[in-house]
Write a structure and sequence with these properties.
By secondary structure, the chain is mostly beta strands. The protein has two domains: about 5-85, RimM (Elongation Factor Tu (Ef-tu), domain 3, Beta Barrel), CATH 2.40.30.60; about 100-170, SH3 type barrels (Roll), CATH 2.30.30.240. It is built from three helices and twelve strands, in the order E-E-E-E-E-H-E-H-E-E-E-E-E-E-H.
Length: about 170
């Protein structure tokens, strides 16, 4: 499991006073209201900064960060990921998982057959979809439905599934 959870990415500047626009990577954008500080990840370098202000626009969160006082400073921050430590992450309801914890999980069929590893999770309206890459390099798209995803163990990094017959024929 990850020690840090990504909650967004700086994509632009907002105004002339050093505010940054953040594309949130969370189901609950209101979590930003409670942030006292955030970790900035640029390459392999992670540093903590204090959050001085939060507001919301259409699909973005606008943050005022400590030490970022003008548009030029804010502009240089494009592409930086915002993270929190796992202990500071929001508590998820039962059956919900952080995408970062699912990436890399081994996917097994209910009979033990290895399908591959989760490389991405697509967020859907009705259900999410696990993008699984097989050892042969094929891609399997697995709908996250109760009859399909039987068990998720992020600590063991294993997901057990039962592919519906039609899906099984398409991919295997």
């Amino acid at each position: 499991m990850l020690d840090y959870i990504t909650i967004g990415k700086i994509v632009n500047v907002h105004g002339v006073h050093g505010e940054v626009k953040v594309l949130p990577d969370t189901d609950d954008v209101n979590r930003f209201r409670k942030l006292k500080s955030v970790l900035l990840l640029a390459g392999d370098v992670r540093r903590r900064v204090e959050v001085k202000g939060v507001k919301f626009t259409n699909k973005f969160v606008v943050l005022k960060l400590e030490g970022v006082d003008d548009r030029d400073q804010a502009d240089r921050m494009r592409g930086i990921e915002l993270q929190v430590e796992r202990k500071d992450a929001i508590k998820l309801p039962e059956g919900r998982y952080f995408i970062g914890d699912l990436i890399g999980c081994l996917v097994l069929e209910d009979d033990g057959n290895e399908l591959g590893r989760i490389t991405d999770v697509f967020l859907g309206v009705g259900n999410d979809i696990y993008n699984v890459e097989t050892p042969e390099g094929k891609t399997i798209l697995i709908p996250v439905l109760p009859d399909v995803v039987l068990d998720v163990d992020v600590e063991a990094a294993v997901v057990k599934v039962k592919l519906p017959p039609g899906l099984r024929e398409i991919y295997l």
